[in-house]
Amino acid sequence: MRMIGLTLVLVLALAQGTRAAAPAPDWRATVREFAASHFQHPAWGYSHCERDYALARALAATDRVTLDDDVLYAAAYLHDMAAFSPWAKDKLDHADVAADTVDTLLKDTGFPMQKIDAVRSAIRTHMYDREPRGPEALYLHDADALDWLGAIGVARIIALVDPNGGKPAGPDVIPMLEANLMKVPSRVLSPAGRAQVSARRQELERFLRDLRRESDDLRTL
Q1: Are 140 and 127 in contact (CB under 8 A)?
Q2: 194-211 pLDDT per residue, tens
Q3: 158 with 165: CB under 8 angstroms?
């Protein structure tokens, strides 16, 4: 009888412990919803974060490189946070500011904070003109660079045109596209990323060529 009683007590205690245990927070959902709510911009907003994450994963898979998906996810969705208020700081590079402050967004989400330094590194070097260190940094860097080329690169830059006649106007964004065409391709570093450069570069070159032809060499743009 005594053994049965002890067993029952243990079972009840375990059941109560199970009921009392709170589910682990879904930090990814928190980060994703935060990005969707706060990063509203046609060139470097939430949709850009989604593309960077998906493309970085795809490039790494093609190269058969294993990534820490926690690091990549956090970095991809938060890498441009300092392009937005209240995190933006005048005269400071948005990548550096984001790397220095990303912990303030992640620390209460359930993100494994022992990985924060890898997230900082990936964010700090995500731009094409910087040197990534580590696999997550490399593939985020290349995904972000490729997103400035091809049809999506055109869409992002054209979206910057002020529809009310302010700056930048239509002709103002053409030098931006030409600069991307000149500077970005050589800065894609991974094998899988480089394999995508040619097609995306040709798309951008074709767009610029067709646009010049259809706008009297940009005079009627």
Answers
A1: no
A2: 999 999 999 999 999 999
A3: no
Give the pLDDT confidence of 149-168 residue by residue, as tens digits: 999 999 999 999 998 888 99
Single pTM value for the model: 0.87
DSSP-H helix ranges across 43-83: 46-62, 69-78
CA 80 to each of CA 21, 116, 152, 191, 192: distance values in angstroms, whole numbers, following the listed order: 35, 16, 17, 25, 23
* Dmax (CA) of the chain: 97
The three-state secondary structure class of 116 is: helix
Closest CA to 180 of 212, 214, 217, 155: 155
Length of the chain: 221
Token readout for 84 is 């937005």
Q: Which of 139, 115, 142 is nearest to 128 (CA)?
A: 142
* CA atoms in the 13 A half-sphere facing the CB of 160: 16
CA nearest to 36, candidates 25, 47, 51: 47
> Residue 172, class by beta-carbon neighbours within 10 Å (0-12 exposed, 13-18 middle, 19+ buried)?
middle
